[in-house]
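2 proteins. here.
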Amino acid sequence: MKSTNQTHSPDFIEQTYSKVSWRLIPFLFLLYIVAYLDRVNIGFAQLQMKADLGFSDAVYGLGAGIFFVGYVVFEVPSNLLMERVGARFWIARIMIMWGVVSASMMFVRSEAWFYTLRFLLGIGEAGFAPGIILYITYWYPSERRARVFSRYMIALAISGVIGGPLSGWILTSFAGVNGWTGWQWLFLLEGLPATVLGIIVLFYLDDAPRSAQWLTDDEKNVLESALEQERQAKLAGGHQHNLREALTDSRVLLLGLSYFLMLCGLYGISFWLPQIVRGLGITNPLNIGFLTAALYSAAAVAMLLVSRNSDKTGERRKHIFVCGLVGAMGFVGSGFTSGSPAISLIALTVATCGVLAILPIFWTLPTAFLSGTAAAAGVALINSFGNCGGFAAPYGIGLIKQATGSTDNAMIGLGVVLFLGSALVLVLKGDSRRGER
């Protein structure tokens, strides 16, 4: 296949990628917002749910974290199945299932049901995040992915911007309506959109450029040529595409460990931020929602700026390390300044910016040396390792808070593990190509 540089003008190539981005990224962005809201709205629900059901901090922490047990167990099989049956059908199946389970959380009445539904929610959502990452690699070569990942993953931050005030409003405005509590309405109203969007996925997404009727043949050739050149470059450079090798590759395992430590920071703050803010003396759920929205708004800006600079320079690992260092300083600072709410909130904002800015750059690393089935398995394995942090951090924070009455020491611990996770990336072997440096 001829190079796109030889057969198409740079303007046509840019117009093609712009067309793809306008078609895919806003929709994927919306899917991720709904996914993340369903995953972490338990953080707001627990402002009322714990007292209503008599759950301790440790019970809440375990329930928040047990989501990731089901998620991790089914992550790799889910991504391999997506590679086999196609992204459109599999992403739709994931969303419909998790929407139903998430809405069913409104019926929780005991610890056993709490743990069971959180576990089932993890099974339902397993494969979504790595599946979307893999799906993006079907359309974009590695040198474009940090910006694309950032535009998609900024949904993590925007879900906080939207979800905080929305969750706070639902908790306060719907309490008692139809005899249901605010947290029951929260699960229902934030769970059903996933099912609706899952049905829309079946009609809107295409498995790959070749099946996209909204692209011309020339536009399809631009996309496929760039991806084929990248695949040939990987083969020429000795990069593996074997499933077994992907699952045992030292780089995959190192990135999995690094991602685990980083996501301890992400989920530590995602699940506990509302309660941390309340611990600073702010008690109204709506006000808590607006404050968390401010933190995530700053993080959204940080994600875009850092990713743009990473793509511009072609450098990845140092960007990740600096973001991790900044985020770690924010976590540690919040742990030492809880007696001063204003300073502590600033420190938490810095922590949130640091940890979220890492994510879109991080995913350029494995997708730069994995492709095909190996990418499906490798990306899922890394994400599985990482999301073990989603179990460890919330549960660990719950135990620490129950034992000490404060989250201060837990925040300092999150800072340490975030720093270690970002530092590990520096020892990853790379080469001179963009996307791996």
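next one coming up
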Amino acid sequence: MKTMTCRQLAGACDREFHAETFEAMGEMSRTHAMEMAAKGDRGHIEKMEEMKDLMNKPGAVEEWFEGVQKEFDALPEDK
């Protein structure tokens, strides 16, 4: 089990997510972002807009994804 924050996953806050895999971590982050955006949280909405802009740049999302996955892989296991 590893821990990352919303901010580490391109989000807007310090909420922690705990998961065994990077894929599970990403799903928790996406769900959280959608919930916060539905509540009208400007910080999360802005971060989601930034990610949409990144998606319009060829290779940018893949580069971001690889970097965050490497960060996840390098994290120590939770105690």
